Description:
2 copies of one chain form a homodimer. Chain A is an alpha+beta fold. Chain A has 8 helices and 14 strands. Chain A has helices spanning 34-47, 60-66, 71-83, 121-130, 149-155, 187-190, 206-214, 232-238, and strands at residues 24-25, 28-29, 56-57, 87-90, 94-97, 104-107, 135-137, 141-146, 162-172, 175-185, 218-228, 248-257, 262-271, 275-282. In chain A, β4 and β5 form a beta hairpin.
Amino acid sequence: xxxxxxxxxxxxxxxxxxxxxxxxxxxxxxxxxxxxxxxxxxxxxxxxxxxxxxxxxxxxxxxxxxxxxxxxxxxxxxxxxxxxxxxxxxxxxxxxxxxxxxxxxxxxxxxxxxxxxxxxxxxxxxxxxxxxxxxxxxxxxxxxxxxxxxxxxxxxxxxxxxxxxxxxxxxxxxxxxxxxxxxxxxxxxxxxxxxxxxxxxxxxxxxxxxxxxxxxxxxxxxxxxxxxxxxxxxxxxxxxxxxxxxxxxxxxxxxxxxxxxxxxxxxxxxxxxxxxxxxxxxxxxxx
Amino acid sequence: xxxxxxxxxxxxxxxxxxxxxxxxxxxxxxxxxxxxxxxxxxxxxxxxxxxxxxxxxxxxxxxxxxxxxxxxxxxxxxxxxxxxxxxxxxxxxxxxxxxxxxxxxxxxxxxxxxxxxxxxxxxxxxxxxxxxxxxxxxxxxxxxxxxxxxxxxxxxxxxxxxxxxxxxxxxxxxxxxxxxxxxxxxxxxxxxxxxxxxxxxxxxxxxxxxxxxxxxxxxxxxxxxxxxxxxxxxxxxxxxxxxxxxxxxxxxxxxxxxxxxxxxxxxxxxxxxxxxxxxxxxxxxxx
DNA sequence: GCAAATTTGTTCGTATGTATT
DNA sequence: CAATACATACGAACAAATTTG
Lengths: 287, 287
């Protein structure tokens, strides 16, 4: 079997991109490490369809023979593919080529019909149904704690001011889809929004409920979208590979009233391998 | 030294989240693997500040002594932290705790002053300057090729219709920041937008240029935000860890004219560790 | 339902190569 | 050049999860 040497690789300034770099040894160009060349061979087989999504990659014992390398080296090659999100391994079962799920599309801009922000309440349910899927939410876990860091900052509260948090697990077609936590100033309860403390779903959506109970009307919101490695809870809930090779989206949504005062912060976490975000922007009423 | 066993771990249905799961062996709860417990110890030292960002983690040889584990096991622990994006390793130098750069904020919704979409032309320059940084772009690489897959789809063209692509590397403060490729139907040139073929920067922005040359006015756009592992070119350009532990954002922006016909597709790639996206949504003129 | 076979996961040992200081 | 530190590669043994007979 012949492993093609790599012949082109862009080299930017700065720290060398070891071990992708073509290594020069004694004036001649050295090859990339064995495990990377094996990984490249396997990657080609996946991309050409020789190994189709869902099918089993030959077991390590077989690859050891095929590529005349030790088992550890084969494992490094497979690990490389795993890190790239191309395969998944399970003890006892084997290594399967990943078949990417049809991503769920989350529209972050408001629905022009309902005015609901994407990923929330009625708009969320509607969007799930529009994609012919079934939405389900776990019952909220309600807590009161002191606002720290970004939570206090986004809500415009003093550090250590008390906030109500409402945490929910959400599912689509019974697969875990998002973890969502909303934070409200604790004085909303004293002012009459007592259902915020109840561990029942607020059917009409908390934004509508707060408008009815307190007269606070949502006039705008800001989303902040970041990506990071999942923590232990997220790995367990979304059933992600434990090594963090599948990242998660984390969105911060700060809702503001007509005076531009923030009154709600919602932190949502989505697995990045099964979601994408959409934005629809209309420029016709811009200057 | 005492390594704390893990006492709580959410177990969802479906495939067990090996190896995070508490393993039961003969009726007793087994511990997580040694390398994960060592990684956890080190992670704690990082998060409590005992190992501060930028500082060197003790070398493998020292950790071998500290934790009474073999060098391979230590390497597994360090690899775990590397995959989580907490440390970076360099041969000869050592293992450093990552100091996260101040993320650059990209506003995807249009600027209410200029009407420019986020991350583009004038709005991009302005946003960079507003964050006290310096923007620079490489000269465009112009190509003509046949539209494939999503490119044809988003532009509403037949598969294999020809498109112009304009590819640019962009820098902020001289660090590589984004890779951007815009696609236009090839007949734009015949209709008069000849500068699209020139490898010179189009100062006023291509959207403005097309409006002047062809009378096509941008009335709306749609963004699609996804996350994936970087490819080899992106690893080299952004100087990312070669194992794909830092993912990239990929955004598809489809610009439409007043008749809602797509006329431009821009694909941008950003390193996810140094960027975040912002959305500003005004609901006051919604129903 | 159980036992055996298969397959990946963990851990050790050892040697050598490459990059940086 | 020498010392230090991480990277690659091989061999070996046992554990844990799954599938198969």
